[in-house]
Write a structure and sequence with these properties.
six-stranded mixed barrel; alpha+beta; 21% strand; single chain; 2 domains; two-stranded antiparallel ribbon
């Protein structure tokens, strides 16, 4: 049953890991290109040629992101405004996270806001009686003589609210790219990043290497994993920590195997003496109990793994355990977990059986 528990724990953690990573898949691209120097760069023909010639790219979108000041019905908030072009919805599936209203159309001053921002400002969707005003500080030097002229202002109308996770929902407002370019007084082709969606079988690390070579050192090319390196490190550390705890529990449980073999040795003491007297070497007698312990561990472990697999598939199909009334506890079946549990159990079972059989020596028969 310990092997079943270990397998279910690993499957549950894989489910939670996939559940957490599903949030960033709705927000972060497969690959992101940005400038190594400065916040923005010019999207020119040479960039377009490199991207269009790469047959592993399904689509790409030009984006522009900056911190801004938002005002709605006398309520204020600082957040990031992200301008996106018409291909953004084909590159990032963010429109699928809009649960109130809809994604904005091109050539409009409409915006889509995070749920936390909408709650903080009390934003109403498609309410044309009130606008979401966006303020951006003007670039320049020296003291501000007239505060009214210190900001660039755009009047927008919220048409949708998205919900991904609390961090993103409280940080982002999306708008059309030209609107953000006007706020920042940027040129028509001046952007801060290119976000790329790869084709199904494309490998992001290989595509990143090719793009980096083609674009040169003035651009920074990052995969989704690199964009969220801290999250991946945390999840991998948690996985290792949980595995270590499960192995400790398994080690404690294997003391039962040691105890069973030792009891069997005591029970069969007279029979073992007979075998020793007729010439069976001590090492071969030890090997009998070593083999018995290993077989006991392996067959018991395989049965536990089988029960674990059945439990995981039942949870995936019938949602036996729920986190909330509508969200089942996530689990994932991976063949690597079968291999990990089996070899962990086999190795520890061998060590436990070796320890138990080692009590047999010449003094035991005296």
């Amino acid at each position: 049953m310990i092997s079943m528990a270990l397998f279910v724990v690993l499957a549950t953690f894989d489910g939670l890991k996939s559940f957490n990573l599903s949030f960033i898949q709705h927000f972060d691209p497969d690959i992101k290109i940005s400038s190594k120097q400065g916040k923005s760069f010019i999207f020119n023909d040479s960039l377009a040629q490199v991207l269009n010639s790469e047959n592993t790219i399904a689509s790409y979108s030009k984006t522009l992101e900056e911190r801004a000041y938002f005002s709605y019905r006398n309520k204020k908030k600082l957040a990031n405004i992200k301008g996106v072009d018409s291909l953004f919805s084909k590159t990032i599936a963010l429109d699928s996270t809009v649960y109130i209203g809809s994604w904005f159309s091109t050539k409009t001053t409409h915006t889509v806001v995070g749920s936390a921002i909408a709650n903080a400002l009390g934003i109403g969707i498609n309410d044309f009686r009130a606008s979401l005003d966006v303020y951006m500080p003007k670039a320049g030097k020296g003291q501000i003589s007239n505060p009214a002229n210190a900001f660039t202002k755009e009047i927008t109308v919220p048409v949708g609210v998205f919900n991904i996770n609390p961090e993103i929902d409280s940080k982002y407002v999306f708008a059309n790219l030209p609107l953000v370019q006007r706020l920042l007084r940027y040129k028509k082709n001046q952007i801060s990043a290119i976000e790329i969606k790869l084709k199904k079988n494309a490998k992001s690390l290989e595509v990143k290497k090719q793009l980096q070579q083609a674009l040169g050192n003035q651009y920074k090319v990052q995969t989704r994993m690199e964009l969220n390196s801290a999250l991946y490190k945390m999840l991998n550390s948690e996985n290792l920590f949980i595995y270590a705890i499960a192995v400790l529990v398994l080690i404690v449980a294997l003391f039962n195997v040691i105890g069973s073999i030792m009891m069997l040795i005591l029970e069969k003491k007279n029979n073992l003496k007979t075998l020793n007297y007729i010439g069976l070497p001590m090492q071969k007698i030890r090997n009998i109990f070593l083999l018995q312990g290993v077989l006991l561990t392996i067959f018991g472990g395989l049965f536990g793994i089988l029960l674990g697999i059945v439990t995981v598939f039942l949870q995936k199909k019938y949602s036996l355990v729920m986190i909330t009334s509508y969200l089942p506890y996530p689990v994932e079946f991976h063949i690597k977990n079968v291999v990990i549990v089996f070899f962990t159990l086999a190795i520890l079972g061998f060590i436990a059986s070796k320890i138990a059989s080692s009590i047999l020596n010449e003094k035991y028969f005296n």
